[in-house]
Amino acid sequence: MCISDCAVRKWVRTFKGEDPRETIQRDRKRSGRPLSASVTAHREKVDCMIRANRRVKQKEIANAVGIPKERVHHIVTTVLGYRKVSARWVPRQLTVEMKAQRKDMCTQQQLSTVFILA
Fold first, then answer.
1. Where is this region: Disordered (predicted)?
2. In sequence order, what DSSP letters do the residues of the chain get, joined into one string?
3. Domain count, the chain
4. Domain extent for 108
5. Are the beta carbons of 46 and 73 closer than 8 angstroms?
6. Per-residue pLDDT tens for 77-109?
7. Most buried in the list 19, 57, 61, 97, measured by CB within 10 Å?
8. Within-domain flag for 20
9. In a domain, 9, yes or no
């Protein structure tokens, strides 16, 4: 079964806007809830809650802020860049202090292994 040429031509005219009666298919304002869960205010609230309690659950954040759990997950993982490690939210990027601390720990471990082997 295939579509007739006449139907295809009608669709082309409709979507190009040549027939003023049929230009209803263009995007219009739609009723419904706007996407407001990723607003800066919500991001700040979520970030403050995580900084206050690193073991806070996404469901608790969603209830406190008043947005869906899926949006909380998006804000926490994608926007703020946190991930779960041992039931805690941890930032994905290391700060300068964290990098310096890691470097110090690695050099201390290397020195202790050198003394043990010698």
1. 20-40
2. ----HHHHHHHHHHHHT-SGGGGGGS-----S----TT-HHHHHHHHHHHHH-TT--HHHHHHHHTS-HHHHHHIIIIIS-EEEETTEEEESSPPHHHHHHHHHHHHHHHHHHHHHH-
3. 1
4. 37-117
5. no
6. 888 888 887 777 777 777 788 888 888 888 887
7. 61
8. no
9. no
The amino acid at residue 113 is: T
* Mean of per-residue pLDDT scores for the chain: 78
Q: What's the pTM value of the predicted model, to 2 decimals? A: 0.49
Q: Encoding tokens for residue 70?
A: 């899926």
Two tokens at 72?
Answer: 């909380």
Residue 89 belongs to domain with CATH number = 1.10.10
Averaged pLDDT for residues 15-23 = 60
Is 21 part of a structural domain of the chain? no
Residue 61, both tokens: 């954040």
Q: Is 19 exposed, middle or buried (0-12, 13-18, 19+ CB in 10 A)?
A: exposed
pLDDT digits (tens, 9 = 90+) for 40-85: 889 999 999 998 998 899 999 999 999 889 989 999 988 888 888 7
